[in-house]
Amino acid sequence: MSTAPSRDLAQENEPDGGPSGEYTRLRELIVGPEKARLEELQRRLDNRQLRTEELSQVVAEAIALRSRRDRTLQRTLNPLVEEAVRISVTRNPNILANALFPVISEAVRKAVAHALRGLVESINQTLERSVSLEALQWRFEALRTGRPFAEIVLTRSVRYRVEQVFLIHRETGLLLQHVARSDQIVQDSDLVSGMLTAIQDFIRDSFAETSGRDIETIELDEFNLWVQHGPSAILAAVVSGAPPPELRNVLARTLEQVHAEYGPLLASFNGDGAAFAATRPLLESCLLGRQEQKSAKQSQPFFIFSAAALLVAIALVTFFSARAQRRWDRLVERLRQEPGIMLTSADRSWGTYELVGLRDPLSTDPEKIVRASGIDPANVTSRWEPYVSLDAKFKVFRHFLGEKDALEQAVLRFPLNSVQLSAEQLAKLDDIEAHIIKLQHEGAAIGQKFVIELHGHTDPTGNEDRNDALSKQRADEVAKALVSRGISKDMLRTVAMGSREPVRAAAAYLTELNRRVTFHVVIEIEAGR
Amino acid sequence: MIQKKICMVGAFGVGKTSLVARFVYTKFSEKYQTTVGVKIDKKVVQHPAGDINLILWDMAGEDALTTVRPAHLKGASGYILVMDGMRRNTLEVAIDLHGRVSGAVGDVPFVCVVNKADLRESWEIQQSDLDNLVARGWTVVETSAKTGAAVEAAFQTLTDAMMQEHHVDDSTAGAVAG
Which of A140, A487, B5, B165 is the least buried, fewest Cβ under 10 Å from its Cβ? Predict the structure, then answer.
């Protein structure tokens, strides 16, 4: 393209001596200087090196001018710069590393110093806490609920309370957001924010200029001001009481989150705080802790109530356990005194009881004694080995029983169809009378009441009605004979058995053995035996 | 609400604090000024864009012993350069301060205030001096903290200038986003 005009010019410059020569001269006169300038411009445009030199003289100003007007240049250059950095790092990482070293080493040094300080603080606290009862409770709670110990400390510590939290723009000292407890009297937070920044600047300027460190704590009588510094924002918490070091981590995390979410807004902050309204919930999550006084008041009724409940419970348990013990002691004593019972061991544990010993079958049933004691027999297991007691009461009783057996062995026999006792049978009455008199004596001695039944029997021959009447007459005959000998009539009872209770061994050829009267001592059972 | 940090700078005894007191009426506390070197006040001013919360950083006056702390200037959206019409040297201090402040915070809006206008007849600073300042592109307001003359106007002028910058900021921010 650029060569085309020069070819045209060359054609026009062709010398000819014709009338056009005049025209050429005329043209030379009129447009000569412009033509020369055009040629000069042409040369400059064509010459690449010259163009580069000229551009190099203005390029810096042009960039400055453009970058002031808008940001297009930055955006255009952005990928180039990134690529250039990438190439530089690939080619020789040392260059960039050396350039960044002062920045990074400073940042690392600060971070390490901060972490170490936090570590020392927490070691102190750990030593303090590891021996207190409260801390043990917290550890147990952490174990039980699976929550981190630090979280328990933050929520359970009653010695501190975060009263207010300020989020401050670092560069301007302007307040971005502020949250406070509802019961706090809030000074003009804008001014507090500014003043805090000014004081920090003052202290940094005056004392810490070289170290470049920030104030992290300002202590007053009852308040602590804990300040957390970020690159673009500051988080300041007004804390009453003695805050645990874990709170520092909460503040640091919150500030990191603010930076992560609002980084670009913080960088371009121009005084419009509306965009930071959304940080409120974040800051409110820092309003941790409780006021000591309040918590004490709150816990007091609960404490009293639980203490009272505990006392009542202890009293009840003591009462019931003492009553059970008393009953048990009485039962054991009663069993030891009971004739015919030899208690060898009596154990009581957790509401169950065990009794082991020897028992004369004639003695009172131990279960009755247990029931009378007020202890539930279901809770009592007992094992009794039988034995013969030599207790006087049982000796007499045994004699009584011997007489009873002897009497019941006695049989009076009758001839066929007769109620008359033979002389031989009548002689047996002496023996029978003697047994009955002994029974009377011994029964009286041990307080045992009884009656003697006289059972009249017949042989199976003859009809039943006749047999019944006959058996009754036989029994009455014997009773009459005994009464005539002086035996009390009240003690005797006659029963007609007919032929219903034949002698077992009696075969058909011995039917005469069935014609008889037998004696039965019926013991009257009293209540309590 | 939009907040703007404003610094009051000027030579010792030109009446910076009096101007702020006149403008604000409510004071946070006087005692910090002597200890920290700055006193902070707040004033809400009206603007078509909404109420603006001005945070006024009242710096300790410049003299042979005290210099303005650059840290305190950081982040200021504008400043008020105060001089005392009665003392010519305060003008020189103001010019010097302007150089230093704009070096610290950049080319932000400012208003030059010549105080003690109630004593105009005994001023050392002449009208020609002020004309020179105006010729530099400065906005010059003659005020009296004592009578209150033009005090509101000075702050309002600065606010308007800052808000113009604010909107420029917004449009650049828009360009970045676009």
Answer: A140
